[in-house]
């Protein structure tokens, strides 16, 4: 019997990101942005649970990245779309940067991730004492 995971967020990028980039794509300069938004909408999925952050993406959704909270050092957010969605940049212990683009409810998700990081640090501190 495995350890149960409680899912906080499971879904793709915000629909506003796709709509906004499709409108920009009506110009030749915005065409690459529109294509990138379509690819994100089709194949990018995020899953935030009480144990890890998972990003499923790549061509046809074949790449998966899982990060446990004990490996996360820093979380930064950037609001987009007048604050309706945003990007999260997660820095890992080894210096790797995991970017999560066009996340709905990004403020809540950032707060949840920070809460889980602090709980892991507190748990590690009590274990060493």
Tell me about this structure.
By secondary structure, this protein is of the alpha+beta class. The chain has three helices and seven strands. The chain has a four-stranded antiparallel sheet with strand order 1-2-3-4. It has a three-stranded antiparallel sheet with strand order 5-6-7, covered by helices on one side. Helix 1 runs antiparallel to helix 2. The longest helix is centred in the last third of the chain and has 23 residues. 19% of the residues are buried.
Euclidean distance between termini CA atoms: 31 Å
Strand content: 35-45%
Helix content: 25-40%
Enumerate the strands of the largest sheet in spatial order, edge to edge or round the barrel: 1-2-3-4
Order of helices and strands: EHHEEEEEEH
Q: Tell me the number of strands.
A: 7
The tally of helices reads 3
Q: Major beta sheet, specifics?
A: 4 strands, antiparallel
Report the average pLDDT across residues.
Answer: 89
Radius of gyration: 16 Å
């Amino acid at each position: 019997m495995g350890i149960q995971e409680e899912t906080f967020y499971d879904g793709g990028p915000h629909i506003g990101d796709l709509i906004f980039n499709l409108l920009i794509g009506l110009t030749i300069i915005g065409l690459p942005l529109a294509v990138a938004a379509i690819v994100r909408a089709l194949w990018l999925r995020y899953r935030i649970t009480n144990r890890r952050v998972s990003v499923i993406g790549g061509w046809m959704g074949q790449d998966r990245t899982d990060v446990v909270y004990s490996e996360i050092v820093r979380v930064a957010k950037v609001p987009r779309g007048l604050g309706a969605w945003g990007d999260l940049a997660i820095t890992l212990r080894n210096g790797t940067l995991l970017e999560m683009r066009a996340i709905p409810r990004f403020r809540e998700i950032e707060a949840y991730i920070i809460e889980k990081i602090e709980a892991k640090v507190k748990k590690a501190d009590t274990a060493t004492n």
